[in-house]
Amino acid sequence: MAKKPVLVVMAAGMGSRYGGLKQIDPVGSHGEAILDYSIYDAHEAGFDTVIIIIKKAIERDFMETVGKRLEKAPVEVRYAYQELDKLPEGYTVPEGRVKPWGTSHAVLCAEEAIDGAPFAVINSDDYYGKSAFKVIYDQLVSNQDPTGHCLVGYELRNTVTDNGSVARGVCMTDEKGFLTEINERTRIEKYDGGIHFTEDGETWTDVAPDTTVSMNMWGYMPSFLEEAKIRFAAFLDKTLVENPLKGEYFLPLPVAQLIHEKKATFKVLTSPDRWYGVTYAADKPMVVAALKAMTDEGKYPDGLWE
Q1: What is the CATH topology of the domain spanning 6-147+214-296?
Q2: pTM (global) more than 0.90
Q3: Buried (b) or exposed (e) across 58-92, using 16+ Cβ within 10 A?
Q4: Hey, is 154 helix, strand or coil?
Q5: What pLDDT shows up at residue 14?
Q6: Using CA atoms, how far apart are residues 147 and 223, in angstroms rounded to an integer?
């Protein structure tokens, strides 16, 4: 019998633009962080097991806040650790490197905890909405193709902030709704005339507000881990020469390679929900207000795990 899908939450990031540990920052009336709401929604959708990726440096703070609350949650919580020295045999951390190796590396660090199950991956500091967890869970349960993966796409207009730039994977799809291309744009901003992005800070390119973008909500069959692992060594060979201190192995990279090599498909599921996130400290009041409104409407109990 196939294993039930599990949820993987990436919570090891640094939060450099935010200026603090945003993955544990309270946004709910009982001190809940955004990831509490994601886990609540995921459990409602059918997920029973949650794997949270952290790093040893934040373990104590994390366990005393989120970890303690989740002891009351009706899910099994496992932890995985993303550390700089978790590298394939024969590789070492370049001198002076402090930046984590990126989202694909984070997922590889959770391989043991995932234990061969289909899995969804999310960021800890993004609010995805209830419908997203339902569509991704249902897809993972019903999918019979071992190389058929998926992601939940959002309309760009629902995922930008008034407080600065955001990084998004801009998606291109075919007529059947499968991903044909994904381009990581690390600086997308709103402006008076619309939304645009830049690579160099000099030239800007407009993006249509209804463009489908990835918010790092992926659904993978177990085969993805093997493929990502093989490609990590190749990534390191290139990065250790070209960008040893800052190069990151983002999830869209192995995805784009697998599509190009025709080794896997990625079905783009959609969510009408509005994204909320705390890229910047100034984003927080809006997230708090939105979650309070949803609680007042009865979408969440007042105190998720009370």
Answers
A1: Spore Coat Polysaccharide Biosynthesis Protein SpsA; Chain A (3.90.550)
A2: yes
A3: beeebeebbbebbeeeebeebbbbbeeeebeeeee
A4: strand
A5: 55
A6: 6
